[in-house]
Amino acid sequence: MLSKIEEILLLMVCKLADEAFAMQIREEVKELTGKPYSIGGIYVPLDRMVKRGWLTMQDLPGEAKRMGRPRRKYLITAEGLRLLKESHELQSKMWNLPEGIINKIMLS
Amino acid sequence: MLSKIEEILLLMVCKLADEAFAMQIREEVKELTGKPYSIGGIYVPLDRMVKRGWLTMQDLPGEAKRMGRPRRKYLITAEGLRLLKESHELQSKMWNLPEGIINKIMLS
DNA sequence: ACTACTTTTTCTATTTTTAAGAAAAACCCA
DNA sequence: TGGGTTTTTCTTAAAAATAGAAAAAGTAGT
């Protein structure tokens, strides 16, 4: 099962598409959650997912005009997509509860 | 931020209401996710959430006809409800993406 | 009442993940 | 060339997930 941060990161990679660089992703996560994330908090799970084959990296050496190391673009794999879909389906299932329960939660 | 299992457990406590005993919850989680969970996989996060004030426990000594120790019923607190709501809102926000991206994922 | 059995909880140990950030690498421009 | 900026690599510490043995408490049969 995907962890929370893994799910968020995979989704942000999909969303950013050609702009899916680690620091851009970090920005998106901050915006989404409202909380700043440490550098390791982004790279560590991203790299773990690369190792597992849920993401791939594509080096863009010097191509884009910028400072720093060769930027790495992240791309989601078929397996990554499958897991993300599965995760979303679990959530739909989870929250598919009787009206009364949902109201109790959402009106709290 | 709630972890995946914490969110599921809080939700199952809400759903089961008067039947929110650990082993019942374990059954529900298995049914929801399709995977069996170890005993510790249920009790450890439940107890952690009690310590944090997201759940409370109510002892029902001998009341219900059954074997074993006095059964413990779990109840969600106001703080637990708040976190669950927050978690749901984050998810709605996350998955609120352009149609094209959603399709790419859901049709994979 | 003693014993065997069932159910639920308590407790512990191991592995995995999260989290934070220092240090290194690569590039830019004066 | 040398100082400044950006991105990545690497390391460490804390928290969470996972698995399951052992203990507790009651029941039923003899």
**What summary fits the major beta sheet of chain A?**
2 strands, antiparallel
N-C termini distance of chain A: 29 Å
Percent in strands of chain A: 5-15%
Count every beta strand of chain A, where a strand is a DSSP E run of 2 or more residues.
Answer: 2
Whole-number radius of gyration of chain A?
Answer: 16 Å
Percent helix of chain A, as a range, is: 55-70%
| Structural class category of chain A | mainly alpha
- List SSEs of chain A in N-to-C order: HHHEEHH
Strand order of the largest sheet of chain A: 1-2
Please state the overall shape of chain A, judged from the principal axes of the Cα atoms.
elongated
Q: What's the rounded overall pLDDT mean of chain A?
A: 90
How many helices of chain A? The count is 5
If interface size is counted as residues with C-beta under 8 Å from the partner's C-beta, which chains form the largest one? A-B, 28 and 29 residues
Low-confidence stretches of chain A: none
Oligomer: homodimer
